[in-house]
Design brief:
Helix content is 37%, strand content 21%. It is an alpha/beta fold. The protein has two domains: 228 residues, Rossmann fold; 167 residues, Rossmann fold, CATH 3.40.50. Strands 8-7-9-10-11-15-16 form a seven-stranded mixed sheet, sandwiched between helices. A six-stranded mixed sheet has the order 1-3-2-4-5-6, with helices on both faces. The longest helix is centred in the first third of the chain and has 19 residues. It is globular. Keywords: Signal.
Length: 426
């Protein structure tokens, strides 16, 4: 049974070497031929089907574009990217990991589930100990449960997104000034990340806004709720002036749409409310009401930032192919930098040691890897949803007519959080 699953995964893995992709613009070749000197093989293990397929496709666009950019210049390394569909299941992700390693991957890319990331860290730790000649690195771009770079920190794992506590602190920077806020409703997905967001919201509210009452606390199954109306009704009935949620993907889109449908007019403080259908679902009801935190937003008011966004839109002109991630671009730049510094695409330990010292800048956005816990440090941006064309909103999201006006830039030195990591190095 396990063997047949691995064969199916290998057969289903899509190599981005000139083949068109079914649900996005066809990508040109992004690597030298298989086996060529200086080729670093990367495997994207992500949901490409099921309820979170849109998040997987968004990641794929970003990683492929970043790899194209590296391969189009003389970076001293060529990147080869192959994708594996985890179907949003940990077991499938672990099978994909084994298939990717068998296919020669040296770098595993994943992020759209902290539970999956945790399972991959454990599996990679064991694999690298058992098979030192086939060691792999794990580059994480979105799994933000804090323990992954604290008590579960691993020499083989590098996180390029701000973890949940960092994101929550950025939102609290805005919440502190919201004097009309008297009651909040906490809602999240019932797994490690969603639980961590609610815990941190409680702790930071108690420390920074003890006058604000938590009037509701709810966890719901991840990826399985089709109708959020019952949750929206409870939120409205609670009298909360605001909702704090770490929901992402369809779980966020359906939640905010249900809130709009029942007439809830409070503020949503979100980790991911700035794309993947959420602005379009809210429409005018979200104007001035949806606040999101990210590593970067398209309406950051600098010429370099605008040039970056415009270059992405030129590469992917369809409105539905929006949602560019600056951190993923920095991640691939850091990987290429590390491989070049290590002078190898196969010596994973040397690449990891170089990656610990990564310091990369792209279009004015700088990121530095903290060696102590492998947590990337970068500025964070907080934005509020507004109609495109209003002051500070030149670019909308996914052709929705709504974008995010930047209201805070949290410098990297203020966004960082302490770590409890005790790194064990080979």
């Amino acid at each position: 049974m396990q063997s047949s699953r691995r064969l199916a995964l290998r057969a289903g893995a899509s190599s981005l070497l000139g083949a068109g992709l079914a649900s996005m613009a066809a990508l040109p070749a992004i690597a030298a031929g298989t086996g060529s000197p200086g080729v670093l093989k990367m495997a994207l293990v992500e949901s490409m089907s099921g309820p979170f397929a849109n998040t997987g496709e968004a990641v794929l666009r970003n990683i492929a574009w970043a790899a194209e950019r590296v391969n189009q210049r003389d970076a001293g390394v060529k990147l080869q990217l192959q994708r594996y569909d985890s179907k949003g299941q940990n077991e499938e992700a672990l099978s994909a990991l084994r298939a990717a390693i068998d296919d020669g991957a040296r770098v595993i890319l994943q992020g759209n589930s902290s539970a999956t990331a945790s399972a991959l860290i454990d599996a990679i730790n064991k694999h690298n100990e058992r098979e030192p000649d086939k060691r792999v690195l794990f580059l994480n771009y979105s799994a933000v449960e804090p323990s992954l770079t604290n008590e579960k920190c691993s020499f083989w794992h590098f996180r390029f997104d701000a973890h949940a506590n960092m994101r929550m602190a950025a939102l609290m920077d805005v919440i502190r000034g919201d004097q009309a806020l008297k009651g909040v409703y906490l809602i999240g997905q019932d797994y490690s990340f969603g639980q961590a967001v609610l815990r941190e919201a409680e702790q930071q509210l108690a420390a920074q806004r003890p006058d604000v009452k938590i009037v509701g606390r709810e966890l719901h199954p991840i990826g399985r709720v089709k109708d959020f109306a019952p949750y929206a009704v409870k939120i409205k009935a609670s009298g909360a002036q605001a909702v704090i949620t770490g929901n992402w993907g369809n779980d966020l889109t359906l939640l905010v749409k249900a809130a709009r449908d029942v007439g809830y007019d409070g503020t949503f403080y979100t980790f991911y409310g700035n794309a993947l259908g959420a602005p379009a679902a809210l429409g005018d009801a979200g104007v001035g009401k949806v606040i999101a935190v990210a590593d970067w937003l398209p309406n950051v008011q600098t010429a370099q930032s605008e040039a970056f966004y415009q270059s992405f839109r030129a590469r992917f002109p369809k409105p539905q192919d929006d949602y560019v991630h600056m951190r993923m671009q920095l991640m691939i730049e850091a990987l290429a930098q590390a491989a070049q510094k290590a002078g190898s695409t196969t010596d994973v330990v040397a690449i990891a040691r170089a990656l610990e010292q990564a310091d990369v800048t792209l279009y004015g956005q700088r990121g530095v890897m903290r060696a102590a816990d492998h947590q990337f440090q970068q500025n964070l941006a907080v934005g509020v949803m507004e109609r495109v064309g209003s002051p500070g909103v030149k670019f909308d999201v996914e052709g929705s007519g709504y974008g995010f006006r930047v209201i805070r830039i949290i410098p990297a030195d203020r966004a960082q959080q302490p770590t409890t990591c005790r790194m064990v190095r080979p």
